Amino acid sequence: MLKGKKIILGITGSIAAYKAAFLVRELTKEGAEVKVIMTQDSTEFITPLTLSTLSNNPVLIDWKDASDNWNNHVELGLWADLLLIAPCTANTLAKMNSGICDNLLMATYLSAKCPVAFAPAMDLDMFQHFTTQNNISNLVTHGCHLIDSEEGELASGLVGKGRMAEPENIVQFVQDFFKPQSNQKKKLKNKRILITAGPTYEAIDPVRFIGNRSSGKMGIEIARKASEMGAKVHLVLGPSQETTIDLKDCKVTRVESAEEMFKIVSENIKKLDIGIFSAAVADYRPKNPANQKIKKKGETLDLELIKNPDILKYAGEQKAKFGYKLVGFALETNNEEENAISKLEKKNLDLIVLNSLQDKGAGFSTNTNKISIIDRHNKILKFELKSKAEVAEDILNVIVNEF
Ligand code: PMT
């Protein structure tokens, strides 16, 4: 499956480096050509001889090889179809995120024109540390692919998340990564998809509003990907600062308030195959927005709020009549799965995408998200932290498989 693919495997100084032998063997067995770059520290954990024997290539560690030839990191970076760093230590993660170039692997990483994937490996406290999590999140934001760490017994004897993904899971990632995308393009051909996205602003007076922190990024990425997959997309977008200029194949309707969003959705609901509701809609709005700017007077100000239409619930009620499928979102802070399942049932959805503000890099405004997708049988598919573009692809792939 990997015939002709050129992979640089970067190995850094973690005990998990011993698993790199299995990784090289499996990748080469699948037909890939593998060149290994080791950091000096990693050679304490596994010998270069083992890896050069398994990869059929000399292992590169230093700027110069044994015959004093320069190992050209630029050429290496151009040669590869994928730079895979596994295991990737906390130290290397930090260097990748800040551009520190103190070894051949880092120089190759900084020169690489190919995609980069990394499989973190460390103790659980190091993994949970905010600096490590920030580094991971930032790398994913900038397009690196995370092969998430797994839970289990760690070298320290502690049990938790931090161990490197098993070699077979890394190989699976690489295989999926190189899977031809061409069939995918047509998978939503001519499907009419309506997507809500962004926040809503509920006017208090001509100057002020009640809003929320949604940027619209998640829904915009879903629109972009659905359109690439052949769908006829109508994006109903709240007041977002994001550009939609490149969504030239999508119809984009800009709205401001929940009522405006409701109006556009209800007018278009008859012509739908799939509705994906990612907007963060205000549940309440000021009952009597002032026509003029409210002047500062007393110590307190009372605002009476009334309920907004629940747009998704309305779409759920109309579903049987028009025969479309419905995907909702749930943004939770606690009892996440229970709350999401309750929304799935109450709003008569086919799928619900759960994201939690407990997860670093997930939810509002970030370029990344971490989601679970729950179906009507309460089957839960969990995904790792990814860029919102990749998350959009995951959601649409599940939609293609389920509907
Ligand atoms: O826009 P980003 O910055 O990229 O952030 C993405 C996101 C966090 C906004 C997105 O991933 C997300 O979680 N969207 C749903 C946020 C939300 O309001 O969730 P909720 O649990 O309150 O609502 C449940 C569902 O009902 C949602 O599909 C919502 O669109 C819908 N709803 C809610 C209230 C309402 N009056 N009308 C609705 O349609």
* Rounded mean pLDDT score: 94
Largest sheet: 8 strands, mixed
* CATH-assigned fold name of the largest domain: Rossmann fold
At the first level of CATH, what is the class of the largest domain? Alpha Beta
Q: Count helical runs.
A: 14
The CATH homologous superfamily name of the largest domain equals CoaB-like
Number of domains: 2
Low-confidence stretches: none
Using DSSP, what is the number of strands? 21
Question: How much is the radius of gyration in Å?
Answer: 25 Å
Strands ordered across the widest β-sheet:
12-11-8-13-16-17-19-20
The portion of residues forming beta strands comes to 15-25%
Report the end-to-end length measured between terminal Cα atoms: 28 Å
Notable characteristics:
403 residues; alpha/beta; Rossmann fold; five-stranded parallel β-sheet; binds ligand PMT
Brief description of this entry?
The chain contains 14 helices and 21 strands.
How would you sum up this structure, described in words?
By secondary structure, the protein is α/β, with parallel strands linked by helices. It has two domains: 6-178, Rossmann fold, CATH 3.40.50; 182-286 and 299-402, Rossmann fold, CATH 3.40.50. Helices cover 34% and strands 23% of the residues. It is built from 14 helices and 21 strands. The protein has helices at residues 20-29, 48-55, 73-79, 90-98, 104-111, 124-128, 130-141, 167-178, 182-185, 217-228, 258-268, 311-322, 336-346, 388-402; strands at 6-11, 33-38, 82-88, 116-120, 145-146, 150-153, 159-163, 192-197, 202-203, 209-210, 232-237, 251-254, 274-277, 284-286, 305-307, 325-332, 351-356, 368-369, 371-375, 380-382, 386-387. It has an eight-stranded mixed β-sheet with strand order 12-11-8-13-16-17-19-20, sandwiched between helices. Strands 2-1-3-4-5 form a five-stranded parallel β-sheet, with helices on both faces. α10 packs across α14 (388-402). The longest helix has 15 residues, at 388-402. The chain is elongated. It starts with 5 loop residues before the first strand and ends with a helix. The mean pLDDT is 94. The chain binds ligand PMT. Ligand PMT binds next to α10, α12 and β16.
